[in-house]
Design brief:
The complex is a heterodimer. Helices cover 52% and strands 0% of the residues of chain A. By secondary structure, chain A is mainly alpha-helical. In chain A, helix 1 packs across helix 2 and helix 1 packs across helix 3 (67-82). By secondary structure, chain B is of the alpha+beta class. Chain B is built from 17 helices and ten strands. Chain B has helices at residues 3-11, 20-28, 34-43, 47-56, 73-102, 112-119, 140-149, 167-176, 214-219, 236-252, 254-258, 265-277, 280-284, 286-293, 296-309, 316-322, 347-351, and strands spanning 108-110, 131-134, 153-158, 161-164, 183-186, 194-200, 222-226, 229-233, 332-333, 341-342. Chain B is globular, with a radius of gyration of 21 Å. Classes of the chains: A mainly alpha, B alpha+beta. At the A-B interface, helix 2 of A face helix 8 of B.
């Protein structure tokens, strides 16, 4: 469910288009062409979509490097929110 | 080069050798566009230095009570105002150094205050805009707390004060840059309307090929008397490298070019004067240090262009041993932005051209709001 929503947000905001719905979850989004500004648009959309705020130490290119890394970060943030 | 630009190169030099006075007076006898010269003195950030030299060498005074420089008081007033302004900034920055020291936070002062303290013979001649500090990235939260307690906030100056940066801007800077968003404090002092502290976490940009261990840079930082107090500056080799890396970054970045801050006489003068005042062993070690850091291209760029303007400041043998195979990049921009373009004019051709940004093939992607 989280991954599906992340992929939808990426499809809309990453600049990579609907192709991102089917890429491997560990594929590098940067190598596929996501730009610096697109990553920021993805961040803003994720924060709105999941009602979380990424703390400063999570605002890294590593966190936004793949579907997996984004999902892993979101799960830790939402678990923190739920606690 | 326009006669005004030739004159500005002479007037905008802190150390005058034999014949410089006569050169200046000869250039002053030309039919000059004084509005252009004043505008350029400001754009090149050398107004206060020009003012100091006009006073020191009585350049306003021609023979037979003739005024060589119309409204010469503007330049001398510019020098006096900058001296007062720098005094206020030194006092404020000294408070920042003290607070960081009390908090046990390591830092190294870069650029302006160090140049005023250790390189220039008169701290009033060097225009400063902010305090640049190198800190370790994992200490950023602690530094931010110190600055907040001193009254600083991160925001964009506006008529109402400081408007906090928007989320996309904060995210972009955190993700993609080695600098924090500026910390600012409004001031009611008539000499300084705004104090600014800029933190950087690396001497290199993210897209740079070079790298440096910031902890080691801070390990070798040196205590000096800066802004009237004991504070830490980069060691001499790191100082020279930092100036050259900064010069390269500013000269080639879309953001700086758009703002007209990409190339200024002051920045090349900073490199020239730092070389002149460095011990011979430091200059001799520069090439090896650049090689170790992976910064030869940036160093050569800075020294090549500095030598164009100040030939005596840059040893020819240093340049020749650094020269990369391909020199085409010397007249390019945008590499650190990932979008390279090429200038139609060389550096001297565009240095005094206030419209050079119109040539840019695109806009900066760095958000500032």
């Amino acid at each position: 469910m989280v991954e599906t929503q992340v992929r939808q947000i990426l499809a809309k905001h990453s600049g990579l288009g609907p192709a991102v719905l089917d890429i491997d979850a560990t594929d590098s989004l940067w190598e596929r062409g996501m730009t610096s500004m697109a990553a920021v648009r993805v961040l803003v959309a994720l924060e709105e979509g999941f009602a979380v705020e990424f703390p400063d130490d999570k605002l890294t290119t590593g966190v936004f490097s793949s579907v997996t890394t984004i999902v892993t970060c979101l799960r830790s943030l939402t678990a923190t929110v739920q606690r | 080069m326009r006669p005004e630009a030739r004159l500005l190169r002479v007037l905008g030099t802190p150390r005058w050798g034999p014949g410089a006075d006569a050169d200046a007076r000869r250039l002053l006898s030309d039919d000059l566009d004084w509005a252009y010269l004043l505008d350029q003195a400001l754009r090149q950030q050398v107004l206060s230095l020009v003012g100091r030299n006009i006073t020191r060498y009585r350049l306003w005074q021609g023979p037979h009570d003739r005024a060589l420089i119309p409204h010469a008081w503007i330049y001398t007033a510019g020098y006096e105002a900058n001296r007062r302004r720098n005094d206020r900034m030194f006092a404020e920055f000294a408070r920042v150094f003290g607070a960081l020291g009390e908090a046990g936070i390591r830092y190294a002062v870069r650029k302006g205050p160090v140049l005023c303290a250790l390189v220039y013979d008169d701290p009033g001649i060097r225009r400063m805009s902010d305090l640049d500090l190198l800190v370790e990235r994992d200490r950023y939260p602690a530094v931010a707390r110190v600055l907040t307690e001193l009254g600083y906030r991160q925001g964009v100056p506006s008529p109402d004060g400081l408007t906090p940066y928007d989320r996309p801007t904060k995210a972009f800077w955190a993700m993609h840059l080695n600098n924090a968003l500026p910390f600012r404090k409004l001031s009611t002092d008539p000499e300084v309307d705004l104090f600014e502290v800029d933190l950087c976490f690396d001497l290199f940009q993210r897209r740079s090929a070079g790298a440096v261990d910031v902890r080691r840079v801070l390990d070798r930082s040196v205590e000096h008397r800066i802004c009237g107090v004991d504070a830490y500056a980069l060691d001499p080799l790191d100082h020279l490298m930092d100036l050259c890396l900064h010069l390269y970054k500013e000269a080639t970045s879309y953001l700086s070019i758009e703002r007209g801050k990409d190339i200024t006489l002051q920045r090349f003068l900073d490199v020239a004067e730092s070389l002149r005042t460095s011990a011979s062993g430091v200059v001799a070690g520069l090439a090896g240090h650049a090689t170790e850091l992976g910064a030869v291209r940036e160093l050569y760029f800075a020294l090549h262009h500095t030598r164009t303007l100040y030939p005596d400041a840059v040893p020819a043998e240093l340049l020749s041993c650094l020269a990369p195979g391909d020199l085409a990049y010397l007249d390019e921009y945008g590499e650190l932005d990932g979008r390279t373009g090429r200038w139609s004019e060389d550096l001297l051709g565009r240095l005094f051209n206030p419209d050079r940004a119109r040539e840019l093939a695109g806009r900066s992607s760095i958000p500032m709001g």
